Amino acid sequence: MLISLTTWNINSVRLRIDLVAKFIKSARPDVLCLQETKCIDDAFPLKRFKRLGYEHVALNGQKGYHGVAIISKLPFESTDTRTFCDKVDSRHVSVSFGARAELTKPLVVHNLYVPAGGDIPDPALNPKFEHKLAFLDEMKSCTALHPRGDDRHILVGDLNVAPHENDVWSHRQLLKVVSHTPIECEKLLAAQAEGAWVDVARERVPMAEKVYTWWSYRAADWTVGDRGRRLDHIWVSPSLKEAVSDFKILRDARSWERPSDHVPVTVTMDV
């Protein structure tokens, strides 16, 4: 059974619901994981998604900030949310698929929005950066996140770290810029290693090639210089590594009218 799953930091789901609809009508993913939805659960545009064929929704939202959601054609067996760093700030939601989705083995999806971390890469001077580092540490230590044995898990989201040299437009110039500092990269890769997670992008695209999913709003024309970063990730458990059949980053979405600064990232798997 082929399943396609997309992760996308939408930067306000209500503001950009027409862009989401445009993407859905074209790509038709089975599961859509959104970050930075920026709305309370009661204000989420459920009716619009249902009209588009997505009946099953798991939400963890808050007013004006953060927020994550999983929207699916396939029914869930269960849903869950977790808090990190003792903050109720809507940065995680997970679902499990099973017999109701006609799967013979369970499949768990975690959707995360890691704190951006502010502008100053010093936890002593910047509480936001301190929070980000603590969040990454907790990602590593949270046993509920990580697959064990033959578990079939997927972890996706805006992890707000570009961990490898060619995940940014200039490794040298961004070493002291939040999202690519050595300590952030080290902590994200430690969390990845803890679950023996497979980074689908870097499994499919050689390390020598540049890969981006985010381009700053500060650039008048994002295509000039192509100064991007790979902040949006799809990880799969070792048991799903061979199940991956396709991987796509929709760069063109960055040029849509009033776009998010992130673009959709999609994986297709035979589960």
SSE class = alpha+beta
CATH topology: Deoxyribonuclease I, Chain A
Percent strand: 25-35%
> What would you report as the Rg, rounded to the nearest angstrom?
17 Å
Q: Report the total helices.
A: 6
Main beta sheet strand tally, sense and closure: 6 strands, mixed
Give the name of the CATH superfamily. Endonuclease/exonuclease/phosphatase
Runs in which pLDDT lies below 50 for 5 or more consecutive residues are: none
Topology as a string of helices (H) and strands (E): EHEHEEEEEHEHHEHEEEEE
Overview of this structure, please?
The protein has a single domain, classed as Endonuclease/exonuclease/phosphatase (Deoxyribonuclease I, Chain A, 4-Layer Sandwich), CATH 3.60.10.10. The chain is built from 6 helices and 14 strands. The chain has helices at 17-27, 46-51, 127-141, 171-174, 182-194, 200-204, and strands at 2-9, 31-35, 56-60, 68-72, 78-80, 92-97, 107-113, 153-158, 198-199, 214-215, 228-229, 232-236, 244-249, 265-270. It has a 6-stranded mixed beta sheet. The mean pLDDT is 97.
Briefly, what is this?
By secondary structure, the protein is an alpha+beta fold.
List the helices and strands and how they pair.
Blueprint: E1 2-9, H1 17-27, E2 31-35, H2 46-51, E3 56-60, E4 68-72, E5 78-80, E6 92-97, E7 107-113, H3 127-141, E8 153-158, H4 171-174, H5 182-194, E9 198-199, H6 200-204, E10 214-215, E11 228-229, E12 232-236, E13 244-249, E14 265-270
Parallel strand pairs: 1-2, 7-8
Antiparallel strand pairs: 1-14, 2-4, 3-4, 5-6, 6-7, 8-12, 9-12, 10-11, 13-14
